[in-house]
Amino acid sequence: MNLDWTVVVPLKAAASGKSRLGASAELVRAIGLDTVAAAAAVARVVVVTADPRTAADAAAISGVTVVTEEEPRGLNAAIILGMPPADGPRAALLGDLPSLRPDDLRSALDAAASVDRAVVADAEGTGSTLVTARAGAAWASAFGAGSLARHLALGCVRLDVSEQSTLRRDVDTMAQLAEAAALGLGPRSVRFSTGSSLSQGGHRREA
């Protein structure tokens, strides 16, 4: 684990967090918790959520601190709420990466350590899954549809992350969930996908 880094993961309420995905609240929550668990194998993690059950489940994961959001105000506001001071490197990671492998996140953070601010593009190349700032650098994030261009405009350096990296496969649709399943879903997500075509990728191996 790299204790220099703090990674903030905003998690929406499971019942409404993935309207385009059309999945159950249980699967949405599982996706978020698998993302958090993978990140917690690499760095300190701060989860920001207004969902009491998600908060309780996240707090049970070793290395995770939970910040309760009284009223949801969007991803970027949640990230600011959980963001630590600038005396150490910090990052924001989207909570919809059910296949995330710790080694993929670790490699990106190692690469980000050499620049003031960095961004990792999603698999489609238009959105963002990870934004970073090293110690002393000002924080800014602009997550949302088409966010990669906004993060580049804010001064982030695009990290050269492989197209096959699990860090790039965020999930907003059933087609994207199937692609994540092919990479290997985390233990919580695969449990709720068992018996469907989405589980064919099996259980990822933790690094």
UniProtKB/TrEMBL annotation:
**What Gene3D superfamilies does its record include?**
Spore Coat Polysaccharide Biosynthesis Protein SpsA, Chain A
A Gene Ontology molecular function term of the record:
nucleotidyltransferase activity
Keywords on record: GTP-binding, Nucleotide-binding, Nucleotidyltransferase, Transferase
Q: Which Pfam families match?
A: CofC
Which PANTHER family does the UniProt record give?
2-PHOSPHO-L-LACTATE GUANYLYLTRANSFERASE
**NCBIfam families, sorted:** F420_cofC
This protein is called what?
2-phospho-L-lactate guanylyltransferase
Species: Microbacterium binotii
The encoding gene: cofC
